[in-house]
Write a structure and sequence with these properties.
By secondary structure, this protein is α+β, with helices and mostly antiparallel strands. Helices cover 30% and strands 37% of the residues. It has a single domain, classed as Alpha-Beta Plaits.
């Protein structure tokens, strides 16, 4: 594995509505915390919350970013999200096509 590629992450999040998912995605990309955010949904989520099993619709967000931005991205999600405990899971990217990774780097760099 090329060590250079380990500095990229896929971050998974969920939102309760399509509108909230779109607002989160827009903010993360506009603020250059993610190069791209895919929104998938609605999906069905079954989870335990406050002692009860819940079953409901959510929207899955899949963000592509750099490792060094994950904590700032997570903090921004916590600021904007309606959930008391929003999902923010970071997964390493073990391979990426070099031109795509270069684009990802450029789009998450500070604005000129």
């Amino acid at each position: 594995m090329d060590e250079d590629r380990t500095c990229y992450r896929v971050v998974l999040m969920t939102a309760g509505t399509a509108e909230e998912a779109a607002a989160l995605a827009q903010s993360l990309v506009q603020e250059r915390l993610a190069a791209c955010v895919n929104i998938v949904g609605p999906i069905r989520s079954v989870y335990r919350w406050q002692g009860r099993v819940e079953d409901g619709a959510e929207h899955l967000l899949i963000a592509k970013t750099q490792q060094g931005l994950v904590e700032r991205l997570a903090a921004r999600v916590r600021e904007l999200h309606s959930y008391q405990v929003p999902e923010v899971l970071s997964l390493p990217i073990d391979y990426g096509w070099p031109p795509y990774l270069a684009w990802l780097t450029a789009e998450t760099a500070p604005a000129p």
